[in-house]
Amino acid sequence: MAGTLRTDLRLHDPDAFYQSLIDAHRGLTDDQSQQLNARLILLLANHVGDREILAEAMAAARDGLAD
Amino acid sequence: MSEFAYPKFTFQPPPELSGKGGHVPVVVVGAGPSGLTAALDLGKRGIPVVVLDDDDTVGVGSRAICWSQRSLDIFDRLGVADGLVDKGVTWQSGRVFFRDDEVYDFDLQREGGQKMPAFINLQQYYVEAALVEALQSCDSVDLRFLSSLTNLRQTPDGVDLTITTPEGEYALRADYVIAADGANSFCRRSLGLAFDGKVFEDRFLIADVKMRADFPSERRFWFDPPFHRGGSALLHKQADDFWRIDLQLGWQADPEEERKPERVVPRLKAMLGDVPFEVQWVSVYTFQCRRLERFRQGRVFFVGDSAHQMAPFGARGGNGGLHDADNLAWKLALVVQGIADDTLLDSYDLERLPATDADILHSTRSTEFITPEGSVSAQFRDAVLALAERHGFARELVNSGRLSTPYWYGSQGLNSVDDPSDDFKGSLVPGAPCPDAPITNPDGSRGWLLNHLGTDFSLLCFGAAPTSLPAGSLPVRPVVIRTDELGDPDGLVSARYDGYPGTTYLVRPDQHIAARFRYAQATDIQQALERAAGGLVKSPAPTAREA
Questions:
Q1: Is residue B124 part of a domain?
Q2: A14–B397: do the CB atoms touch at under 8 Å?
Q3: Are B116 and B72 in contact (CB under 8 A)?
Q4: CB–CB of B394 and A15 under 8 A?
Q5: Which of B504, B469, B500, B465 shows the shortest CA–CA distance to B485?
Q6: Are residue B437 and residue B337 in the same domain, yes or no?
């Protein structure tokens, strides 16, 4: 369980990924979009599996939001 | 530094007004960058062309300002690049800011050993003026200003045009028409063509400002900056101490109000600080992305904004129009000369429609990032920008415009697929534009490869001249890379083309690669050449030539 979150670019064609992410929300209300994001995080977290990595990702995401 | 003086073109009564002439192989409608480029390309090939424009000067205001390397390579082929590069501002780096912080900088990090820079910034009027000047000394091109196209009617064997001038109306019949008459194209409306697409619900203030400032020659882009909360801002340096500023205003902004100096000046002061500046030109615009279903409509060919419009991020509109002209001109020349069959002209759509779709896709993605629709898109955008300062992957997602790149036409249509056993290394493929590289001339002076490829079909051969082609072939110019012909002083020609003795590239007149071989047989070259000329090559008639 060594962790170490990778934040170098690993996505192939990042612009296409970003577009698919935005497209996934098209036509949803804000509440529905929040629900989609929550489900997406859970699915991806399970795929990652590694609790250390997930903890690092949560810390990186929280950074600068509430000091 | 001397400023641009708008030329005043006079009306010269054409022969048609005194009952002479009346027929010309090619008419170009519209004297913007793409129309003028098409006219010059055709003119240099000896094709008689009439250019019509309803105005008496070049375009007012900076308009398109970023010219890509590929566009400069085209201008260089046409002999107008040097003056533009001298006058323009060469740049290759940029910075992106989010709120108070710089989040990202980029350098287009180009390999050296290429004649043209990655980008120059230069006001469109300079480009148009340079093209007009070159056309004025081109005997086969007749530039007609203050000449409005007021009727267009297409028949199976020609196009009938009515032209209205200060001294009356006349008729002109063209074999082919290049419709380069811009976003509100009269030609497009005359043919009743649908031009559907998407309007981006946003407004931008665009301003040319003259000031002495020591900002470096780089592209600067701000998301939600302190001087313009909630919007984006873009700053580009142009020639003559002009700066181009784009400020996002939002869909609710009133275009009439926003153009007024009392609105514009405070916005610019907030951005530029305590620098004295002078506002030279202001416009408020919205943009759309749309294209014609086909750019070829019988004998009428649409180039530039008449064929397609897109968001400005990435400088793909102006550059794309030049690439249209570059793609069309040699094909039209071969058909007008009676060398290639009319079907060659169908490849204009085959090649430029996907190229345009790629430009529209990239500029649309940039727009969606810069002006997110809805709160979720805005949340993702801000999250990317917040993460970008510390995390590499997020920097790659920041999209303030993906700059224009040349389209690789691929191995379909005119271009031949590699024989797999030839085993070419590297990323170059048939359909790609030829990369430049330094060469040495036989007299020892240095030069550039692209200048030797010229404007005809050429065979770029490594080590030895090609075996001669069968009689009746299209003329092809050999360009031999060998110490006693063209030297390869830095090894970059061989490296960029994966060339070694025996390697041969067939290069199209627009300097895109048509085919390549390791050990070229005359019959292979002949076959690839016929394919690149549209398949049905007519033997040049020797009797006609002697006559």
A1: yes
A2: yes
A3: yes
A4: no
A5: B465
A6: no
The 3 state secondary structure assigned to B268-280 is HHHHHCCCCEEEE
With a CB cutoff of 8 Å and minimum separation 6, the contacts of A12 are: none
Mean pLDDT across the stretch B497-520?
95
Band of residue B150 on the pLDDT scale cut at 50, 70, 90: very high
DSSP secondary structure string, B80-110?
Answer: -HHHHHHHSEEE-EEEEEETTEEEEEEE---
Chain A (39-58) residues lying within 8 Å, Cβ to Cβ, of chain B: none
Based on the fold, state whether residues B90 and B173 are members of the same structural domain: yes
Q: What is the mean pLDDT of chain B?
A: 93
Radius of gyration over every alpha carbon of chain B, rounded to an integer in angstroms: 24
CA angle B304–B310–B313, rounded 5-degree value? 115
Instruction: Identify all chain A residues contacting B397, using CB atoms and an 8 Å cutoff.
Output: 14-15, 17-18
Quote the ipTM score: 0.96
Encode B147-171 in three state secondary structure. CEEEEEEEECCEEEEEEEECCEEEE
The answer as to whether B4 is a domain residue is no
Extract the tokens encoding B118: 């990655």
A20 touches chain B (CB under 8 A): no
Which pLDDT score, from 0 to 100, does residue B466 have?
Answer: 77
Our measurement of the distance from residue B476's CA atom to the centroid of its chain's CA atoms, rounded to an integer in Å, reads 25
Distance of CA B355 to the CA centre of its chain: 11
B276 found inside a domain: no
The alpha carbon of residue B396 is apart from the nearest alpha carbon of chain A, in Å, by 7
Q: How far is Cα B130 from Cα B257, in angstroms, rounded to an integer?
A: 35
What is the residue range of B48's domain? Answer: 23-94+107-195+289-365
| Percentage of residues in chain A having pLDDT higher than 90 | 91
B540 pLDDT band, cuts 50/70/90, is: very low
Averaged pLDDT for residues B146-173: 97
